[in-house]
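Entry — protein

Goal — fold tokens:
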Amino acid sequence: KYLGEDRMFFGTDSSYYQGVGVILSSSLSESQKKKIFFDNYNNILRKSGNNVD
């Protein structure tokens, strides 16, 4: 209800591969995973005048 693929992004301060694996093995679509891993954070960067495109 409150969270969705448009309201979260991936970040970790522990094992990178363990965290990535949880998302990669989930039932999320490829476009949802792309939003979590890249698009949403890039949108934040773009709003601050930066981006990684």
Q: What stands out?
A: The chain has one domain: 1-53. The first helix runs from residue 16 to 24.
